[in-house]
Design goal:
It is a single chain. By secondary structure, the chain is α/β, with parallel strands linked by helices. The protein has three domains: 122 residues, NAD(P)-binding Rossmann-like Domain (Rossmann fold), CATH 3.40.50; 211 residues, Dihydrodipicolinate Reductase, domain 2; 61 residues, no CATH class. The chain contains 14 helices and 15 strands. The strands form two sheets. A nine-stranded mixed β-sheet has the order 14-13-12-11-7-10-9-8-15, covered by helices on one side. A hairpin with a 3-residue loop joins strand 12 and strand 13. Helix 5 runs antiparallel to helix 14. The chain is globular and about 65 Å long. 42% of the residues are buried. The chain binds nicotinamide-adenine-dinucleotide. The site of nicotinamide-adenine-dinucleotide (NAD) has 24 residues, from helix 1.
Amino acid sequence: MNLQQVKIVVIGAGNRTNKYLEYAVRHPERLKLVGIVEPVEIRRRLVANKFGVPEEACFSSFDDFFANPIDADAVLIGTPEDKHYEPCMRAIEAGYHILLEKPIAQTKQECLDILEASKRKGVVVGVCHVLRFHPYFMKIKELVDSGELGEIISINHYAEINIDRMTHSYVRGLWSKAKKTNPMLIAKCCHDIDFLLWICGSKCRKVSSFGSLRWFRKENAPEGSAERCIDCKAEASCPFSAVHLYKERKQWIRNFDVPEGQTIDDVIDKELRKGVFGRCVYHCDNDVVDHQIVNMELEDETTISFVVNAFTCNDFRGTHIKMTKGEIDGNETTLRVRKFRGNEETVYDFSDLSNQPFHAGADLNIVEEFVNSITRSSEGVLSSTIESSIESHVVCYEAETSRLTNQTILIE
Ligand SMILES: NC(=O)c1ccc[n+]([C@@H]2O[C@H](COP(=O)([O-])OP(=O)(O)OC[C@H]3O[C@@H](n4cnc5c(N)ncnc54)[C@H](O)[C@@H]3O)[C@@H](O)[C@H]2O)c1
């Protein structure tokens, strides 16, 4: 086994990157952070101090980094998705292996460009489809692949996006505008489509989709509502109040930067007065859907129906797989397997695991496979390379085309 250490530079040092960097904390002999590109000084400094990265290896823009490249094997791209394509293409041309946050990029063509460039340069591009590395989802794959339940005939799958996650991320926050980042199906649910295609092992040949931004628009605002929750007469009874979410319940505040000399309460107050997260959900500039369904038919005639729900307190994915000899039914907490012959039933309990940090260890598993893959260690190769992940993105973009044009799309 080759235990070579991988030297990595991060581009974007936000929420996701810090999760993946935990692998370097736990396994410094395998992964070493040698450079940081991050425009927000406070984040750049925090990560630099934690990993002892010298000032000359810290950059506020990727232009500066690519003009003064560092001796490294790989780059981790954890920027918002409008900043995936350019640094990824430049990193490929510079010969770095890349661990790229999903979604790959912002259009089908950009995704295909990255695939083509990575093949031409012979570098690994790993896509962070963490469900493939999550014990619960891996168990589903193992059960399907075992053949014990025969072949898949159809699947009902749904993603429950908790209402607070919805308003924080897809109404007020980073993923609220399709042009700025991506349509919601790609931003959030390329994971789901990737998971479904991964377990089926067959390609999608037809897709159709419906959905819209039904609720979070100004004509649904209550009478007398204000642009900001702190000024709003309807705030006390509004289920989407930013005052209630951030100031009272203190949820979704983990990624608010707290400058030196200030407290998190100062930051929340400022956000409610001036920031994007203080805005009324009916008076934002959001345009991504708040509900969507996708239907797929695969080459082997499997049919899949996938529903995205945001008007729910739930925050999990549910999957019901109908197979020729039985069925698998799960909700991330339990997984129930029933065989038709003999009515045999097995229940797997994942309740201890479902709230474990780092996506139940998946964030660390993917980094480990990436490291193994580029050091050609005998420990295994990365399963979520761009070659195997691109289909989910193509299907998502075609589903969006279907939703917007009212057509069923045939995928070549
Ligand atoms: N795999 C998953 O399960 C998962 C979960 C959530 C988010 N994501 C994806 O991860 C990516 C990052 O999301 P996040 O939640 O970490 O966001 P974040 O805002 O916490 O982090 C992004 C970081 O990139 C920095 N940045 C912005 N422009 C930059 C530039 N030009 N150069 C360098 N850095 C720049 C920002 O300042 C920020 O620190 C997104 O693509 C998102 O869709 C993946």
